[in-house]
Write a structure and sequence with these properties.
Blueprint: H1 3-27, H2 39-46, H3 49-74
Helix pairs in contact: 1-3
Length: 75
C-alpha cells in the first residue's frame, strides 16, 4: 500500500472519529443548550459511541498492518 493511501485511511478514520465525538457533544446537550445532568440520559447519549470509535481505530490498525505486510513482501 502506498504511503499516501495509508495516510488517506488515517485521515478518513480520524475524520469519522471527530464527527462521532462532535455528535456526542451535541447529544449531551438539550435543545436549549443545557447539558444533561442525569446518568441515564448521558448513558443513552453515549450508546454506540465506543463501538463506533473502536471501529475506526480498527480501520487504522488494519490499514497499517496491510501496509507493513506489503512492505515486507517487497523486500
Amino acid at each position: 500500500m502506498e504511503t499516501s493511501k495509508l495516510s488517506w485511511y488515517y485521515h478518513k478514520a480520524c475524520e469519522e472519529i471527530h464527527q462521532i465525538v462532535d455528535d456526542l457533544y451535541e447529544a449531551l446537550h438539550k435543545e436549549e443548550g443545557v447539558p444533561m445532568e442525569l446518568t441515564g440520559e448521558v448513558e443513552e447519549a453515549m450508546e454506540g459511541v465506543k463501538m463506533a470509535i473502536y471501529h475506526e481505530l480498527d480501520l487504522i490498525k488494519t490499514a497499517v498492518d496491510e501496509h507493513e505486510s506489503e512492505a515486507k513482501d517487497v523486500q
